[in-house]
Amino acid sequence: MRVSRPLWRRWVLLALATSVALGVAAVGPSAGASEQRQENCKTPRAEKPEAPGVFGSLVAGDCSAIVGAKIEMSLDGEVVDTIVSGADGTFSLALDEPGTYTATLQVDSLPKGVALTDKGDTVRTVPIQADRPRPLLYSFGESTRQAATKLDEIPGKLVDGVQLGLILAMCAIGLSLIYGTIQLTNFSHGEMVTFGAIVTWYLNQSVGLSLPVAGILGVIIGAASGAGLELGLWRPLRRRKISLFGLMTVSFGLSLLAINVFQYVFGARNKPYTGTVGGGGWELGSRVIPARTIITIIIAVVVLGAVAAFLRTARFGKAMRAVADNPPLASSSGIDVDRVVLMVWVMGAGLAALGGVLYSTSFQVNFMEGQQLLLLMFAGITLGGLGTSFGAAAGCFVLGLAIQMSTLYIPTSLRNVGALAVLIVVLMFAPQGIFGRRERVG
To answer: Belongs to which family (predicted)?
Structure first.
């Protein structure tokens, strides 16, 4: 028997989780980045890639490393890769073939107050030889920025957290609905995210479609793949009375198969889209927020709002919720359960594909991106409550905030640790998740 937790308690728990996610900034080291300034103007040495390739270091006039600057490498008018400078300002990129490349420094990716000595020196012609890598050097004037404090970084991290949280929420809704309707923990859901991103990349790069058109077609193809999997794989397996453990094992094997196919067909390198929507950006704290980030957030909010309205008001949406709550009772009430499950797979795969496209506009396309997001999706769903679409969205949103805000005081490579800490704290108070329902046994 299920016992509903009072609605006010759910909102209190959500507010608590969000406060923990945002509060990580307050417990970090004290503000004052002046201590991090380099005493000696020594340029860090970049690791040389295997030839052919480029490498270098980006250092401002005050000897501070330029982090997160982007340089697009193009060959014959097509962008082949995008360089992003690391935490010490260095970068290294191996290229597939020699040739005369064009290196374009993205000025809007430079930190606030940092500019080239020659502001017209953003585009370079770079001959790349097959036998040795080539250094790529830029000259920056004296930085006019003030030492960034932790408080300066908070607005930018907050925007990053909102973006990641909304993308995770979009991807996880389908995973949660699938679990709610057929109790399948689908380990291959991450590959639906990757599939949408890769299909969009091929439509954008090989076919030459604009990114918005390629993205829409990629989402449609991704949704169709969900229908194909349900009709060709999952429904026949369920009719053969395969156990849930067996279905879960099949999903794990399907995930491994898809990852290897993606790596073979797409390759192991990160690849950007061409003609990313939204140039320029806005200054916020110590960061310049790219326009594509704001566009991603707007699209995600609109889509999530539309999904929520559909599930709450549309007849078919109510049928989905009824099947998720009690499939036998829904079937006896005249609801076509098989049709509802099919639509859940279509919606879940389409949302996952859209999430993959939006994620890749900022982080590029990678054959493993869905698998990297899958653990966070599971954590967000557990945090919000298994089988509830709204709970999955809320949990993933809180998790996204926790991940990005935690990087204020821990290394980026450990950022998921902060998210899992939030998960543990909330589950101590609500073992069924924020919007989950307690069950009475016996």
So the answer is: Belongs to the binding-protein-dependent transport system permease family. LivHM subfamily.
